[in-house]
Design goal:
Length: about 180
């Protein structure tokens, strides 16, 4: 799998388990790109929903994707601190069209004080039935929720104090 070059603007494409396109972020600047990790940033980027709606993100965000973890992490820089939105998802793949992953509905929202809530469990259960998620996938996804929560509690990776600040400073050099 190729890796995107730092400074390159890429599209991020989110799919559902059945292969349908779910959501597209038009432009994210790559800050670090390897075969295993992509760190990107965007600010006021246009987002296209599968139902035809579009919207624009409100604040700068640092995005963390890993090829071996079944989640991605978005740190949103707001006036009162960093909020995180974590998608339980397939590991990413990258090709000439952009960075792609499958969104598995479960989300973890993390507040600046590092408290968190698990979201969309009902949506997950509905899609698990409708799209026939295999039992092994269900187990992988729930194990990764546990891993993600450990990362939050341990302030690991994107949840460490300096991670978002460091990468946001790098992003500003590309603007």
């Amino acid at each position: 799998m190729p890796a995107p070059e730092p400074g390159k603007r890429i599209e991020i494409q989110s799919y559902k388990h059945d292969g349908n396109l779910h959501r597209v972020w038009e432009s994210t600047t790559v800050l670090k790109g390897t075969r295993n990790v992509v760190i990107g940033a965007n600010d006021r980027t246009q987002v296209h929903e599968s139902d035809g709606r579009t919207w624009i993100t409100r604040e700068p965000a640092i995005c963390y994707f890993h090829s071996k973890h079944w989640f991605n992490i978005i740190g949103m820089l707001r006036n009162d601190g960093v909020y995180y939105y974590c998608n339980i998802s397939s590991p990413f793949v990258y090709d000439e069209e952009g960075l792609k992953y499958i969104d598995y509905d479960l989300d973890v929202k993390v507040f600046p004080d590092m408290t968190y809530i698990l979201l969309d469990e009902d949506e997950y259960e509905q899609h698990k039935k409708e799209m026939n998620y295999p039992k092994v996938l269900d187990k992988i996804l729930h194990n990764n929720v546990e891993t993600l929560i450990r990362w939050i509690r341990q302030r690991k990776g994107p949840f460490s104090g300096e991670f978002i600040d460091q990468w946001y400073e790098r992003y500003l050099t590309y603007r």
